[in-house]
Design brief:
about 250 residues; Spore Coat Polysaccharide Biosynthesis Protein SpsA, Chain A; 8-stranded mixed sheet; two-stranded antiparallel sheet; nucleotidyltransferase; acyltransferase
């Protein structure tokens, strides 16, 4: 990594409505006094020079109170995504001025309770300082599938957009490492011609990764992940219960 280092960006503007929690997902408790934010902070602060979190308008005040010490010491910053228009908008809209000064952006979904610090370290160690580095894991029934060919990423299939993912396919663990050089301009080119998702109506971030490889010619580095549990975010009550059991077995 160069001296400008890594900025981790956590899009966390979801409302947590499916969980019925009444608080943003990133603030949901995994154990007494331990929230999703605390877990992500433990894994990201040692690895990244700065962490930027994108929240909803309703979540801004509560999250700033939760992360007050980190914000005060300058290690964490916060911006607001005014409308829930997708991850790409959060990363390249609200967050862009915060990560633009860094050589590397590490995007981490805000509900990845089962992400390991070892995976974060492995991704940053493997990142060549250019292109895209992806930790991927084989899944029996992937929700998202990454199709690789010839050393590149040719397609990302998304179940939520009605696309069929193949059994045993490679899925992500909610972590994406990208070189920032020219990245905002590449997103603008992609967004100008990209179709919107059939179900969400969003210009999706994940197909942008395939665009970077296939159209922009950026190299893709894959970091194998052994444990499929790392791919499991917190989206349902069952996911939350799983995360709590996992934390109790291995709180670090």
């Amino acid at each position: 990594m160069s001296e400008r280092g890594v900025c981790a960006v956590v899009p966390a503007a979801g409302r947590g409505t499916r969980l019925g929690s009444g608080v943003p997902k990133i603030m949901i408790e995994i154990a007494d006094g331990v929230t999703l934010w605390h877990l992500l902070r433990r894994r990201l602060r040692p690895a990244a020079r700065h962490v930027h979190v994108v929240v909803s308008p309703e979540g801004e005040g509560p999250f700033l109170a939760l992360a007050a010490a980190d914000v005060e010491d300058g290690g964490v910053s916060v911006s607001v995504q005014e409308r829930p228009t997708g991850m790409g908008d959060a990363i390249f809209g609200a967050a862009a001025r915060h990560w633009a000064a860094y050589d590397t952006i590490l995007v981490v979904w805000g509900d990845q309770a089962n992400l390991s610090a070892a995976t974060v370290r492995a991704v940053l160690a493997a990142h060549p300082g250019k292109g895209v580095t992806l930790p991927l894991v084989a899944m029996a029934d992937p929700y998202v599938e990454y199709e690789l060919a010839g050393g590149g990423l040719v397609r990302v299939r998304q179940s939520r957009e009605g696309e069929e993912c193949r059994p045993g396919g490679l899925s992500d663990v909610g972590v994406f490492c990208l070189a920032t050089d020219g990245l905002a301009d590449a997103w603008a080119r992609y967004a100008a011609g990209a179709g919107r998702g059939a179900a969400t109506g969003e210009v999706n971030f994940l197909p942008f990764l395939a665009y970077l490889s296939r159209v922009e010619g950026r190299p893709v580095t894959v970091v194998p992940v052994a444990d499929p549990a790392e791919a499991r975010g917190v989206n349902t009550a069952e996911d939350l219960e799983f995360a709590r059991r996992t934390y109790l077995r291995c709180p670090d």
